[in-house]
Amino acid sequence: MRRIYIIHQWVSLICALFLLLLTLTGLPLLFRSEINAWNTVNMPPPGDPMPLQEVWTALPAGTAAVTAAFPEKEILGVTPDGADGTLYFLVKERGGKAGRAHMRMGGEQIMYDVRTGTVFNRRDRVYRSEAVQSFMHTMHILHVRMGMEEGGRDFLATMCVLSIFSIGTGIYLYLPMMRRMAFGTHRRRTRRLFWSDWHKITSVFAGAWTVMMCVSGVFIVLYSVGIRDYHRTAHTMAAEHFAAVPQDAAAIPAEEALARVTVQFPAKDVITMHLPTARDGYYSFQIADPAVRPTDFALGEQVYLPAGGQGDPFFVPVPAWLTMASFFLNIHIHNHEMPAEKIFWGMLVLMTAAMIVTGIALWLTRWRNRISDAVEIAVQTRTNASWEEPARIAALTLILCIVPLYGHLGEIIALGASAYLVFFFVQAVRR
């Protein structure tokens, strides 16, 4: 037991500050869409959700509108957003260099509202506060990669693994320590007892959620590495596959290429399309299984079609392990869309921060290990098994993290589980 305690103490200390960084930067990012909507004063109002197939039918009109409004721009790719019925056109200056972009993120993106026919260049956004925009950008790069590149990202993933190990050893220590003491007991006789009891309470309520976030965070890093390798491999395979196709044929229109892919893969959604370039003489599409909700992450698989439309589309499936990406990314990012659920997730973030801070306080008072028998006796006696509360809270945490992925009913169930956890916490700390 003492050996496990020492391991838990030092492993937790190693990863504590980095896990605290992830929680504190994750808190404002939790409300990023609301903050950005408030801070951007000239953004077109969002529309209602629309099926992706319906959004794609506006491709010819959107292309014409973007070309007319920005004749100096060259269209590189198009991505539909079913959440509000918008087509995003990735563009660059004619003869210029394209910025790094992925779907609706990065580069220069022009929005086309399918319902109103209006266009808006996202580079023309006007912010209520540049400081707020800079702050949110800083929070993002710190949360994703500590302000560094792949090295910072991979380092944070390592800290997540250590955090999982830290919480596991903490549960191992918690169960025998709480055999006699009622859950939620917080003693005030000494400073160390105060920090120790609050560390137990916050760890039980935040532990399972933190493990879920760390596991999904590690998988997101693995996904980012794997998907990059997949895209390189897929492009190489497409170049080899189309090597014998004549390149002098006139390019078919984008809407015709889109229709060819849609017919070939009727059960899939086309989630993005890149137009042929001088270097790559083919259309590049990403297709995915239809999402349950418009805001869900969808794993795109590459499909290629020669610019001239010769032959059938060429499909490159993703590696089997990458198919888990949708589950983990949606758990980490897209399973708390309701405002009330976001507030509860904010509470979980703060609970995790409290778990870390109380753990650090325990480490700083580690020389005060001698506790008198009189203090130990003055506690409420436990009437159930010490594993019951952690198991109940972990089960509810799994429910509130997973069931929202299955639609509106799941979101309501998750909200109910969240409300019960708040009630349970209040009951526990009132002892």
* Average pLDDT for all residues: 89
Beta-strand content bin: 5-15%
The share of residues in helices is 40-55%
How many domains? The number is 3
Query: Can you write the helix and strand succession as a string?
Result: HHHHEEEEEEHHHHEEEEHHHHH
- The count of β-strands is 10
Return Rg in Å.
Answer: 26 Å
What topology does this entry show?
Blueprint: H1 2-30, H2 32-39, H3 52-56, H4 59-69, E1 73-81, E2 86-93, E3 101-102, E4 105-106, E5 108-113, E6 119-121, H5 130-145, H6 150-177, H7 191-241, H8 254-264, E7 269-274, E8 282-288, E9 301-306, E10 314-316, H9 325-334, H10 339-364, H11 373-377, H12 388-402, H13 408-429
Antiparallel strand pairs: 1-2, 1-7, 2-5, 3-4, 5-6, 7-8, 8-9, 9-10
Describe this entry's structure for a reader.
This protein is of the alpha+beta class and 431 residues long. It folds into 3 domains: 207 residues, no CATH class; 89 residues, Nuclear Transport Factor 2, Chain: A, CATH 3.10.450; 97 residues, no CATH class. Helix content is 55%, strand content 12%. The chain contains 13 helices and 10 strands. It has an 8-stranded antiparallel β-sheet with strand order 6-5-2-1-7-8-9-10, sandwiched between helices. It has a two-stranded antiparallel ribbon with strand order 3-4. A hairpin with a 2-residue loop joins strand 3 and strand 4. Helix 1 runs antiparallel to helix 5. The radius of gyration is 26 Å and the shape is elongated. The two termini are 28 Å apart. About 2% of the residues have low confidence.
